[in-house]
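Exercise 7b. Backbone tokens:
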């Protein structure tokens, strides 16, 4: 078996291994999201990348390890986006609003992330459990909310009986459902909520609910 990429472009992996790995992960993300772990095929992934099947095995070992790396990359991307928000420089209410808005928008723009998480739930979190990166990577999401909540409580704004983990659950749940159930919801109730104005309204309402939950009743 030679090292010629499936698309006929040879030698690219030698000059840019990081770029090739990124390309493989991007293509694999789409394939796993569309077909699941069992349905995705390395031959199909290789045919759509800038490299060869041999090099996919060289970089990632086997299909299960490639799927695990895709899962890690999906979580890394959302956590990296949160990091770029620089929430520590904002008042606590504004920081919470911005984080909730970011999550809603990120999930809406990255439906493959939602599908990968759904697929991992089908596998009972087995590959997430195997990963040494995902749990510590996602701890950062709770740490950011802990910092926001601490500042909100110190300012006399936030309740003490609503935890950062609970807020994360509510933000994730509404942002996730917006994508995961879009097809069935649209078939039953129509597509108005998933058009531009509908999405903006849902995002605004989600943010209002999350902030309202965090605030003391007298601060609402």
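Sequence design result:
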């Amino acid at each position: 078996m030679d090292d010629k990429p499936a698309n006929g472009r040879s030698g690219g992996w030698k000059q840019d291994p990081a770029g090739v790995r990124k390309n493989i992960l991007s293509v694999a993300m789409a394939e796993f999201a569309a077909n699941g772990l069992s349905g995705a095929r390395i031959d199909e992934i290789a045919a759509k990348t800038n490299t060869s099947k041999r090099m996919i095995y060289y970089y990632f070992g086997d299909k299960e390890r490639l799927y695990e790396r895709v899962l890690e990359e999906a979580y890394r991307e959302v956590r990296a986006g949160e990091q770029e928000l620089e929430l520590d420089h904002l008042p606590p209410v504004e920081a919470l609003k911005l984080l909730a808005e970011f999550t809603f928008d990120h999930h809406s723009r990255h439906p493959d992330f939602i599908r990968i998480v759904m697929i991992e739930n089908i596998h009972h979190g087995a590959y997430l459990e195997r990963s040494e990166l995902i749990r510590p990577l996602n701890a950062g999401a709770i740490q950011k909310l802990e910092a926001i909540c601490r500042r909100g409580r110190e300012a006399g704004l936030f309740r003490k009986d609503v935890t950062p983990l609970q807020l994360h659950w509510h933000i994730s749940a509404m942002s996730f459902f917006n994508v995961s159930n879009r097809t069935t919801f649209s078939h039953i109730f129509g597509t108005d909520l998933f058009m531009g104005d509908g999405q903006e309204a849902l995002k605004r309402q989600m943010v209002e609910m999350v902030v309202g939950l965090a605030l003391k009743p007298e601060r609402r």
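Instructor comment: The radius of gyration is 20 Å. The CA atoms of residues 27 and 43 lie 12 Å apart.
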